Amino acid sequence: MRTIPRKKTFFSVSIFLLVLLALTLPVHSSRTRAEKPNVLPGKFKLGSGAKRITTPSAPQHVELPHLLAASYYSLNGGLNATLMLSNQGPHSMSIGVNLFSLTGARLTAPTITLEGNTFRGFDLNEWAIAGGPDFREGSLQVAYTGGDMELGGVVKLVDADRSLIFDEELAEPMMFASSRLEGVWWLPSHKTEMLLAVSNTADAPLSVNINVDGVSHA
Prior knowledge:
- By secondary structure, the chain is an alpha+beta fold.
- The chain is 17% helix and 30% strand.
- The strands form 2 sheets. Strands 1, 3, 4, 5 and 7 form a 5-stranded antiparallel β-sheet that branches. A 4-stranded antiparallel β-sheet has the order 6-2-8-9.
- β8 (151-159) and β9 (164-169) form a beta hairpin.
- It is globular.
């Protein structure tokens, strides 16, 4: 029986291991490169159960005509009248204001440009001066183009000497589904005065029935 020397056997095994390693490394490297995902710096890889978050697109800007109204304002008897307007949308809008006297005469105020998400107050006395004494008392309308309720407003009457304040929120007449309006009145003493203001926001005449009820017939 022939015996192989130990040195030759070790050399043969070494060559076999080197050849096996050489054949294995390229396959392992190519597989590693193929399985490795392309991830950009600063980005996170989503897991199998994760959901991708998408940013919603900005809603389309709506351009529709709207008309808001306030039934009464007064600059008499020490009252100061202020029109407060708030653009609650992101876009700039042009606003038109018309004052109406007690006889129905119209006074057009200068056009207002109100930036998006902006709130401003306007002294009605500055506009009424141009129309004369007839426009120190009356009603007003505010017109704008935009989405529903994108413009909000309040007419504020203040009597600083008597510490009195009255606010009326602008309303769109077409939003009322009923032809009947109701309110609550209260006269805490015989020195109290109450004024009921009725305003026709349409261009045509309007017939109105007014009923006043109390807790007693007196």
